[in-house]
Write a structure and sequence with these properties.
alpha/beta; 46% helix; 238 residues; seven-stranded parallel sheet
Length: 238
């Protein structure tokens, strides 16, 4: 399962945190590191903090946007430290690890900026939000420490698997990727504007709620095709 999991760091300010995160990953058997527009990378400080996990830095994938980092992922879990205007499925680190192993999908664990975490738009691209339940009086975690907590729970879950039995996916058709869901939502918005269901002057939170609905449903690729077929038939009628 670890080969299906990537750690995604978004817009990291301090290169030492990238190195610390790489070390935390390697401690727990994870190797796939994605960096979204890091402020400084490559960096000698990152190499120093990696302390034996330099290979993860050398093989890190650097991209411009979160969309690029998770485009081929089927399950995206983003770290969040606060309540949102529109509630999103929320889990703790142990539950997140359970989801990763139960779903057996191409997965991204996404961590935000040191000072302000992930934006609302970035969090809306996640199927679940994960919250580390630190004490309220001193709740802020170092980025590398947060990565360590999530990686530790994945490691513990892997050790609980009996006799190294492979995890069986529940899907009879491959699950839809983040990119496929994005394209379907763009198609849906286009049709809703065409039918005047959606008012472009007062869109409110309609598309955000549709995104939450479809991500919660965790569509497979066949279902995405069915939905887009329905949308295409509506376009032909107009």
């Amino acid at each position: 399962m670890n080969s299906k999991v990537r750690i995604v760091l978004v817009n990291t300010s301090h290169p030492g945190n990238i190195g610390g995160a790489a070390r935390a990953m390697k401690n727990m058997g994870l190797e796939r590191l994605y960096l979204v527009s890091p402020k400084v990378f490559p960096s000698d400080e990152a190499i120093s903090r990696a302390s034996g996990a330099v290979d993860l830095l050398e093989n890190a994938v650097v991209v411009d946007t979160l969309e690029d980092a998770v485009a081929d992922c089927q399950l995206v879990i983003g770290t969040s430290a606060r309540e949102r205007h529109i509630p999103w499925p929320l889990v703790d680190p142990r539950q997140a690890a359970d989801l990763v192993y139960e779903e057996a999908l191409e997965t991204a664990l996404v961590f935000g900026r040191e000072d302000r975490g992930l934006t609302n738009e970035e969090l809306q691209r996640c199927h679940y939000h994960v919250h580390i339940p630190s004490i309220e009086s001193f709740s802020s975690l170092n980025l590398a420490a947060a990565v360590q907590v999530l990686c530790y729970e994945l490691r513990m879950k892997s050790l609980l698997m009996i006799n190294d039995q492979p995890v069986q996916t529940k899907w009879d058709v491959p699950a839809a990727t983040a990119e496929q869901v994005d394209y379907m939502l763009e198609h849906l918005e286009k049709v809703m504007l065409l039918t005047e269901f959606l008012d472009p002057n007062t869109p409110r939170q309609v598309m955000t709620r549709f995104r939450r609905l479809f991500q919660r449903a965790q569509l497979d690729q066949h279902e995405i095709g069915m939905l887009r077929g329905v949308l295409t038939s509506v376009e032909k009628m107009k």
